[in-house]
Amino acid sequence: QAKARGRSRTEVFDRDMHVQAVDRLELETALRRAVDRHEMRVAYQPQYDLRTGRLDGVEALVRWEHPERGILLPGEFLHIAEETGLIVAIGNWITSAACRATARLHDLAPDASDIVVSVNLSARQLASPRLIDDVAAIVAAADLPPGALVLELTETVLMDVDASGEALTRLHQLGVGIAVDDFGTGWSSLRYLRDFPVDILKVDRTFVAGLGQDPEDEAIVAAVIDLAHALGLKAVAEGVEDETRLARLRALGCDSAQGWLLGRPMAEADLIDLVLAQSPPPDA
Ligand code: C2E
Ligand code: MG
Ligand code: MG
Ligand code: MG
Questions:
Q1: I want to staple 49 with a disulfide (CB 3.0 to 4.6 A). Which of 9, 56, 72, 147 is the partner?
Q2: What are the pocket residues of ligand 1 if the criterion is a CB atom closer than 6 Å to any ligand atom?
Q3: Angle 50-52-282 (CA atoms, 0-180°, nearest 5)?
Q4: pTM value?
């Protein structure tokens, strides 16, 4: 009986594995066509300057509007895009869409012209020999000043790529900003902050979550903000979900913040409404 149960468990396991493999293959096939079929979307999450309270940036976050499965989040397909290398083409599409949307925002209202857009890059993208030329072409085609684009890289991505130092230097020469994403959750080698042309540290939301509750998280967030400032960098907090955390971040001198309290990732049309509400057009 035990043997029979064991076998059936194995069969169930095999069937699950099979379902997973088919699932993954279907997703991969669909992902190959997703850009051409106009299924990729960019959601924009607002970032606010904590001193002035003004919207000073947006983070571009990819979504996939799958014809059958509905909206998929990055966690559901990005790994496939990375493993297959499709992320290079998809990433260029995202960067281009985000730069164009930001250029449109700049045209909309005079005091929207300082809004910066952040785009996430994965290791495959940073390792691509075409990255610099692609980014240069994209900002030029969008008619966006390169300084209005920030590229976000996690510490793990920075560690992964042998040539990341040179790629970052060349991106920086273009005038593009560089942010270290999820700071403190990777390898946190401070050498990278010394050797690479970084402009922004993003305080990871796992630390922000403990503000007002956990003295260790509080100490880490304070230290990251101070480190950023000591190096002449901007500190941006992620995952701000309530007023307590927002107040703590302000008190600790954090420069900017994003999170559900301040704004969910939204479609470009909603972002435009938000910016217009903040800065009425000159003839209003
Ligand atoms: P990330 O760059 O750290 O982006 C922040 C993530 O936190 C986003 O998840 C955002 O929706 C979520 N978030 C924002 N505010 C809050 C909050 O208050 N509380 C909580 N719990 N979460 C919040 P999302 O959009 O699912 O993206 C997940 C990750 O996928 C991103 O993490 C980034 O590493 C990656 N990613 C997203 N878009 C792209 C892209 O276009 N290209 C690449 N290469 N990676 C991307
Ligand atoms: Mg990010
Ligand atoms: Mg992050
Ligand atoms: Mg994070």
A1: 56
A2: 45, 61-62, 73-75, 78, 87, 91, 94, 120-122, 152, 181-182, 205, 238-241, 258-260, 265
A3: 135
A4: 0.93
